[in-house]
Amino acid sequence: MRKSAVLIALLLAAGSLVMTAAPAWAAGVTKEQLDEAIAKLVANGELWAKDETIPTNDRADLKGLKFDKGSAPVTIAALRSIKRNVPSLYATARLLEHLQGSDVETLQAILQEVRTLQMRARSYYRSFPVMSKSHAESMGMPKYNPRLTTAAIMARMASLAGRRGAKKARDLPIAKQNEAAWDIEQATFRIQAIAGTKTDDARAVSAMTLAERASNASFIAIVDAYIAAAPKMEADRAVRLYQMLRVPASRLRMVNRKNYICKGKCLLKDESTSTFTTVPDYPGVKMIALMNKLVVVAKNKRCPKVKVPTAAEIKTYNTPKKKKK
C-alpha cells in the first residue's frame, strides 16, 4: 500500500512539473521579445543599407521567437510600429521571412496585415535618376593623351573615382530600398500562398496574370510561392486553384521565353544610368508546373496532369512558316 502511495505521489509530482514547464516553451512571443528583435534587425539593416558586412555576433537571432495565434495581436502591432526607411524595411522583410515558418492558424490570424504590407511594398520601388549623355561621357575613362604628365593622369583618375563614388552613394540607397521592398513582397506572397483564403487565391491568380502581361518578375515570385505551398494544401483548395489557372495557363502555354523585370535586383553602373535586372522564363511552362503540383494534391478527375511543352516545341510554334512558292 505504501509503495502504491509513493508511486502515485511521484506521478502527480511529474505531472505538476510538466504543467509548470509547459507555458515556458508553449507561450507565444511577447512584446518585449519582439521589440528587442526588431531593434537588432534595424541595427543590422543600417549596416546592410550601406552595403557593409553585418558582424556574425551582431546578427539578430530570431530562432527563439515562437509565434502562435494568441500572439497575433502583438505581432501585428510590432509590424505596424516598424518605420519605412531602408533599415526598417530590411527588418520588416526579415521578420516576415521568419513568420513563414509558423502554423497556418497563426498566419491566418495576421493575414490582413500581411496583405496590407504587400500592397505598401509595391509603392516603395524607386527608379534611378537618368544620366544625360554628357554626364555619362564624363564618367568614362578619359582618352589617352601622350602629352599628359603622370601627375595629370593621376589627378584625372582621382577625379573620376570621386565622381563614380558620388554616383554610387546616390544610387545605392535606391537599390537597397528596392531590394528590401522585393524581399517584403516575396515573403508576403509566400505567407498568402500558405494560408490564403479563396479570395486570396483569386487575387493571386489575377495578380500573376497582370504581372505577366506587364513583364514584371512578381509573376514568377507569386507562382514560385504557390509551387512551394502546394504540397501542404487541402485537396479542395488545390482543385479550386487548379480551375482558376486553366484559362490563363492555356493562353500562355506556347508563349516564348520572356524577360521579366525585377525591380528588387538592381544593376549599379559607373558610366550610365543604373537599371533593374531581368529574369528569363517561359510563362506557360511556369504556370503549368504549378498546375501539375496541384494535381498531386487534388487527386481529382477534374484536375488532369497537363503536358509541359518543350523549349523546342515552343520555338517551332512561334517560328513563322515559310510560304510555299
Summarize the model shown:
The chain has a two-stranded antiparallel ribbon with strand order 1-2.
Proportion in helices: 55-70%
Q: What's the alpha carbon Rg, rounded to whole Å?
A: 27 Å
Give the CA-based shape. flat
Describe the strand arrangement of the main beta sheet, using strand numbers.
1-2
**Strand-and-helix sequence, N→C?**
HHHHHHHHHHHEEHH
Give a quick account of the main beta sheet: strands, pairing sense, barrel closure.
2 strands, antiparallel
Q: How far is it from the N-terminal to the C-terminal residue, by CA?
A: 108 Å
The low-confidence runs, each spanning 5 or more residues with pLDDT under 50, are 10-26
Q: What fraction of residues sit in β-strands?
A: 5-15%
Query: What's the total count of β strands?
Result: 2
Alpha plus pi helix count: 13
- Taking all residues together, what is the mean pLDDT? 88
Derived from helix and strand composition plus strand pairing, the structural class reads mainly alpha
Structure description:
The relative contact order is 0.09. This protein has a two-stranded antiparallel sheet. It has helices spanning 2-26, 31-49, 72-81, 86-99, 104-109, 111-121, 133-138, 150-195, 198-213, 218-229, 235-252, 283-298, 311-318, and strands at residues 258-267, 275-281. With 325 residues, the protein is mostly helical. The protein has 13 helices and two strands, in the order H-H-H-H-H-H-H-H-H-H-H-E-E-H-H. The model is unreliable at 10-26 (pLDDT under 50). The protein is flat, with a radius of gyration of 27 Å.
